[in-house]
Amino acid sequence: MRTRVFSVLLTFALLTLCGCSSGPVNGYFVSRGLPHAVIMAHLVESPPGVLSGTLEATTVDPNSTTATVHDYNLQGTITGSNVSLRITGALATIAGWFGDAPVLVGTLEGGRLTLSHGTDTTTLWSSSQAAYLADVKSVDQEQAAVDQFNSAVEQAKAAEAYSQRVDAALDQYHTWGEVRLTRVATVKAWWTGRIRGYSRCVNRIKPLAERGVPSWRWQQCVLSIDTDSFNRDQSLQQTLALNKTNDSEVSRLEQMIATAQQRNSAAGDQLRAVCAGEGAEPQCPKLLQVWSTDAPKLPDPVKIAAFRALVPQVSAAVSADVRAATQGHATLVALAAEANHLYKARGS
Questions:
Q1: Structural domains for the chain
Q2: Which of 123, 151, 177, 300 is most buried, with most CB under 10 Å away?
Q3: Inter-residue contact 196 to 328 (CB < 8 Å)
């Protein structure tokens, strides 16, 4: 970028002279010799043989939304068709590009100003202010096209990043779903084990209570059942929450998939639009090729297919967990009530 700035500034400086051998120099000289740039020198000869003026360079900035404008002051002389100009003022801050006293030499003949610095030579042509402003407008339009290109690239990058988020979310669901499939038997066994323990307690204390054995001698299992009420209630709520979690996660992922596909389609359309025509950015062919190859993989169609195949299995597993939990909880509550009834009925 530094090299290009140097080239542009040097060309700007070389394009600044305008003169006419038939009378005093007074006018605009413009060059569009550099891509995405217009350089204008406004020179006035007064007194005779002494030149002063300004140099203005308008260039497309690939990292901005507006064109960059540089203004410089010029001072010099004209003898016949020979000119000599020195860049002064603002350019002093970058004088290192040309040395401490950047001087341009050349000729002004027939509305054509040719300036040289070392081995570099640039030509400026006499122009009107209106024509110069039209050139500036053209650069502004080129800047707008660059801005649209940059925006399209950012849109494509954002679409790709979002698709990667979708892929990661699908991976997370797959891991969670596989766990749910393997937990069905464990969930059922948890409730079955609790029912077995409660039933064993009730079956043991019932004949004791009926025979009038003091409750303090068999109350321990009843107290254990009372203490376990928190565990059975919490387990039921957690299992019921799984159903809501699965439904909401499936809905969220389907929405993310649809959003990703829509964003990818829009990004592709935008890239193709800004890369159409002869004035497209040089990066366009490669970008379009990469996008045409990668876009169909965003989000990963294999992961989407695996997700949609897994959802019915996970839903069935969660439903089985919910049935085991609701039925098991109801049974435990009934057994707990029976144990408490026997305990309270016999007293101590």
A1: 2-127 (2.40.128), 144-346 (no CATH)
A2: 177
A3: no
DSSP lists the bridge partners of residue 31 as 39
Backbone angles phi, psi at 214, to 5 degrees: -55, 140
What whole-number distance in Å separates Cα of residue 277 and Cα of residue 57?
27
Q: Is the dihedral of CA 5, 33, 83, 117 positive or negative?
A: positive
148 to each of 111, 152, 188, 345, how far by Cα in Å?
Answer: 37, 6, 59, 84
User: pLDDT by residue (tens digit) across 187-221?
Assistant: 999 999 999 999 999 999 999 999 989 998 999 99
Structure tokens at 277: 């025509």
Predicted local distance difference test score (pLDDT) of residue 347: 57
Place of tokens 């707990």: 336
Quote the CA–CA distance of 187 and 181 in Å, as a whole number: 11
User: Mean pLDDT, to the nearest integer, of 163-190?
Assistant: 97
Judge if the upstream peptide bond of residue 299 is cis by omega within 30 degrees of 0. Answer: yes
pTM above 0.90, yes or no: no
The token pair at 255 is: 């929405």
What is the rounded CA–CA span in Å between residue 154 and residue 272?
Answer: 14
Nearest to 317 by CA among 243, 207, 264: 243
Q: How far apart are CA 271 and CA 210, in angstroms?
A: 85
42: its two tokens: 């406004």
With tokens 């040719």, the residue in question is: 114
CA distances from 155 to 65, 148, 158, 166, 291 (A): 16, 10, 5, 17, 12
